Amino acid sequence: MNFEILNMEVVRSLYIVSAVLFILTLGGLSNQETSRKGNLYGISAMLIAVIATLLGPQVSSNYGLLIILILLGGSIGLILSKKVQMTEMPELVAILHSLVGMAAVLVGLVNFINPTQEYLGIEKTIHSIEIYIGIFIGMVTFSGSIIAFGKLSGKLSGNPLMLPAKHYLNLIMIIAIIFFGHNFVTSGTIDSALVPLAIMLTISFFFGIHLVASIGGADMPVVVSMLNSYSGWAASATGFMLSNDLLIVVGALVGSSGAILSYIMCRAMNRSFISVIAGGFGTESSSAATASTDQGEVQAIDIDEFKNMITSSKKIAIIPGYGMAVAQAQFVVNEIINILKTKDIEVIFVIHPVAGRMPGHMNVLLAEAQIPYDIVYEMEEVNDDFGNIDLSIVIGANDIVNPSALEDPNSPIAGMPVIECWRGTYTVVMKRGMSTGYAGVENPLFFKDNTRMLFGDAKESLSQVLTLNN
Amino acid sequence: MKIGVLKENKQNEKRVALTPSIVKKIKKLGYDVSIERDAGVNSTFYNTAYEDSGAEIAAIDNVLKSDILLKINKPTQDEISKLSGNQTLISFFSPATNTESLQLCAKDKLNILSMDSVPRISRAQKMDALSSMANVAGSRAVIEAAHYFGRFFGGQITAAGKINPAKILIIGAGVAGLSAIGTATSLGAIVRAFDTRPEVKEQVESLGAQFLTVSLDEDGSSSDGYAKVMSKEFIAAEMDLFKEQARDVDIIITTALIPGKEAPKLITKEMVELMKPGSVIVDLASQQGGNCELCEKDNVAEYKGVKIIGFTDLPSRLPSQSSELYSNNLFHILDELTPNKDGILDINMDDDVIRGMTAVKDGSITYPPPKIEVSVTPKKPDEIAEPVIKADEKKSSVVPALISLALLFIVGAFAPASFMNHFTVFVLSCFVGYMVIWNVTASLHTPLMSVTNAVSSIIIIGAITQISTTDTISLVLSSVAIFIASINIFGGFAVTKRMLGMFKK
Predict the structure, then answer these.
(1) What are the chain A neighbours of B456 within 8 Å (beta carbons)?
(2) CB neighbours of A115 closer than 8 A, spacing ≥ 6?
(3) Catalytic pick from B131, B279, B286, B323?
(4) Is there a contact between B134 and B175 (Cβ–Cβ < 8 Å)?
């Protein structure tokens, strides 16, 4: 049986349609209104690409197997997407990245052992390099994503792995990979090239593990977006290997998307990409963290006072951190803002770019609780306006509201943009105890004159606030 | 333990040490509370309100038997004579000037905690009754001035003619001074304020007043939180300034006071003569002799048409408010004194604040306490943190551009045409991606990642083209690749759809 209906030229032109639709997919995400359409563009682009390939000259048999595999994998994917909790999104994204990485490795291996085309001279060298790089990136994405998944899901410790001389270790691994790459390219036969390839696979497997394992929990948003980028580059490298422009285009789109997200995350923490990749948070300047001495005393309040503060405010800013999601408090928060609306109290949400475990995670969690997205603001949009805000409520956040980032040049988080809620009239911080945040830095916000602390479980406290109606 | 609240017996005193709302909080610390009958009547806190909040109403003799006695004004000698055993009294005491009473208290196992000896450190602000009373006094001073001043404060233009706004000079921008500034500006007056400490300028201006200063460069800040005594030259310059202002302003409110010391004479008879008839001076330092030479304690003096108000009971003239604030201060002190919330008083002499307040401990005088440094010493300008330099400083983009150019040249020199085609596509796609992604709103970054995740599974195309093979290993590998890429495609798009569906306006 053969379905070679389309010739290669038609397939190529359909690939162009597909590539354009993929670009529109990403463009659609520029705002909430067009985002759903964007997703549909993505689905149709994928559909067009797959069908065009199926009907093109490159596929001539095994159609049944192919359809069964797609349906089988597809149903698993659908089940995963239905079951996942929104707090688990970073884990899901990480594990899906690892699949892309693995797929790139497999496609590379097949192309290596069963080449569809004969190359000669410089073209052969380039093709070998393409295979080698494609498999390398795929493998690093795969093993790195597995570790990221483990860290995000709590199966592995969030602490950075601190091997002695880890920078040299990385360097040695990269040199080894280049060395075996040379062997791989210059070896004449498939059999003789297999050995360096296998060694490289092993090294890059450990390289990926080490790369992610040595990054601390607070830097996970960067890691997730970095792996997102890698999965794109892996697809792009595969495109070079197979001389397939669609793969190159789409891979490059995804690669730059992940790279930009990583950059945004790094900027939000005022850390350079290199330093994030190279090691854990606060490892280089932890000695300065304890420099602050007597900070005064915190002023604790109880629920009744908290209720009074809420009802006597005109404009309230809620600053959520990942702690809110962990406590699953966002649903109660939504009920509260509905009550406040009836009392003519304006409520806005202020989100720091690194709140949550992946870029934009907090927004999704709020959206899940049906909090309208037009009252959810970015940090930069609100920071200058805190003078108009009567009450800021910090729920489960710490480092992102730490004034020492701006005031103390020795602080490990110095220079990180933070939400400047202390410029408002009052701030209430809901917290379990006086522990420090991810970065392990004392937070002078808690000791400010216009800050009040409400100790206890955020969800429980907020549930009690719900009774403020009666 | 039992806490007793005495009715204030000083003339014209309308305040009460504890209000019903604070009784509730103190009961939570484990104490029983007993209130002298009618103690709060003058500040509109009635006996029934106390009973409702869990206090018992008792006669004075019963109250005096309590373990802890709370008061506002310093105890009379008669009251001191009734104290015995290991009772604790918390009230204003002025141990520095009230030495006679202090000696009398050194008996049995008495403890005396003086409310006016709370150290001025930031931790103790919530217990500082001097500050909270000064706040009330400052505000009330403006109201008293308005009462005796025969004009409006705010300016107006009416059909009957123009009304000029009142000009007010406030000397001393401490708690009372700032409170007076706030009240006066909100009544519409033009307010000027003078202080020897330049660092209060910002606070004065934030309240809408003009900050006056002398041209001499001398800083009046000191480490105990009060202004220090200035040099002769400075005082001369200061007096010239006041003289000049006296001609111009309608109202002067003086707040220059250092506890336990005689108030500095700032407004001389000569200056009063310079003021317009009908002007008003409110002297908040009259308790310690007054800042104005002509001030009479607890009285309104009049000199050449200028009224000089010397009331010392200004906080008591807003009795409900003052009582509320004072009881809050008391509550915070009791909270400190009861670390276990078990109703047992623990006077911990290792605690700076408690040590500072304690004038008598177990029947022996512990005043004066060792000096402690105020933690709110103003920062010297050079200590102010330099703006933190951001890591992503703009670097010169010339070098990377040159490197990229060189790399491109090398690639072009060696690579075959087929590679260059793909490479062109690749570089252009990177730029398209770069342009498009910057437009993505930050709130959609998670959906962006899940959709790019699905999109990057385009790699399935590669696997599909490899499946039509007879080689078993290739077949197995590409099958697995297709399988896992499909998980990714369906999972990625479906979860993106689910997320985007949640975003509602």
Answers:
(1) 100, 228, 231-232, 234-235, 250-251, 254
(2) none
(3) B131
(4) yes
Q: Are residues B302 and B336 in the same domain?
A: no
Domain residue limits at B217: 134-317
**pLDDT, one tens digit for every residue, chain B (505 residues):** 899 999 998 888 999 999 999 998 899 889 999 999 999 999 999 999 999 999 999 999 999 999 999 999 989 888 888 888 889 999 998 888 888 888 888 888 899 999 988 888 777 888 899 889 999 999 999 999 999 998 999 888 888 888 899 999 999 998 999 999 999 999 999 999 998 888 888 888 888 899 988 866 666 666 666 666 777 888 888 888 999 999 999 999 999 877 667 888 899 999 999 999 999 999 999 888 889 999 998 899 999 999 999 999 999 999 999 999 999 999 999 988 998 888 888 888 888 889 989 999 988 888 888 876 554 444 443 444 444 444 444 455 778 888 888 888 888 887 778 788 888 889 999 988 888 888 888 888 888 989 998 999 999 999 998 888 888 888 999 999 999 999 999 999 999 999 898 888 7
Q: Give Cα B130 to chain centroid, integer Å.
A: 15
- Is the CB of residue A87 less than 8 Å away from at least one CB of chain B? no
Q: Do B491 and A81 touch (CB under 8 A)?
A: yes
Q: With contact defined as beta carbons under 8 Å apart, do A365 and B447 qualify? A: no
Strand extents, DSSP E, B135-207 = 156-158, 161-163, 167-171, 190-194
Count of domains forming chain B: 3
Q: What is the ipTM of this complex?
A: 0.88
Closest by Cβ to A60, choosing from B122, B388, B468: B468
Asked if residue B110 and residue B161 are part of one domain, the reply reads no
Residue where a domain terminates, one of B260, B288, B317:
B317
B219 and B345 both lie in a single domain:
no
The H or E element containing residue B175 is helix B175-186
Closest CA to B449 of A258, A253, A84: A258
Q: Which two tokens stand for residue B214?
A: 């002398």
Structure tokens at A91: 């884990």
Contact B503 A116 (CB under 8 A): no
Of B15, B120, B140, B192, the active-site residue reads: B120
- How would you list the strands of the sheet with B306-309, edge to edge? B210-212, B190-194, B167-171, B251-254, B280-283, B306-309, B300-303
Question: Assign residue B172 a region: left if phi > 0, alpha if psi is -120 to 50, beta otherwise?
Answer: left
Question: Model-level pTM greater than 0.80?
Answer: no
User: Does residue B59 belong to the interface with chain A, where contact is any CB pair within 8 Å?
Assistant: no
User: Strands, DSSP E only, in B292-363?
Assistant: 300-303, 306-309, 358-361
| CB of B481 less than 8 A from some CB of A | yes
Which of these, A114, A124, A108, A127, lies nearest to A238 by C-alpha position?
A: A108
The number of residues making up chain A comes to 470
Pick the catalytic residue: A399, A408, A449, A457?
A: A399
The verdict on B66 and B160 lying in the same domain is no
